[in-house]
Sequence to fold (172 residues):
Amino acid sequence: MPKMLADGTTKLVLLDSRPADIAAITATEANAGTDVSCLIMDPLNIGPSGSDTVDEKALCDQGNAQAFGASNYSGRTITGYRSYDDTTLQPDAATDLAWEAMKTKGTLIRCLYRKGGKASTEDFAESDEVRYIEYTVDDPQEADNTEGYSKFISALGYAGTASLDTLLVAGA
Fold:
């Protein structure tokens, strides 16, 4: 199948610790993460956002020449849904997992995600293509939109560690 709808196919987990080898993350490590796929609003805007450029024009070049320098990662935002207890109607720490992970400024979150192909509800498996990126979070902001579900916005700052488009490996 050459094309596939992306609807419902992004799986995002937050890992409690950095994988032993970020270039060879195991399916076991991935599945040990806290799945927040249903607690994060689409679209998921994390990942590379274009590298810096460096002017590298040689004397013999006609026109300007540039080379790519340091990578940049979109430290945009993640919008999360809040989760409440059915009886007390108060926030429920047991199910308000995205909020609990991102509510404190300076907290490091270890994001591992898979896009496309499998449903977001399917476990990670060997050979799944994933991206792993670490961010620190800022103070949570209130969502501007008061319609729909209760939400929060967490600004992200790239924490300097990423592994892009790697395949999960077997192992514990």
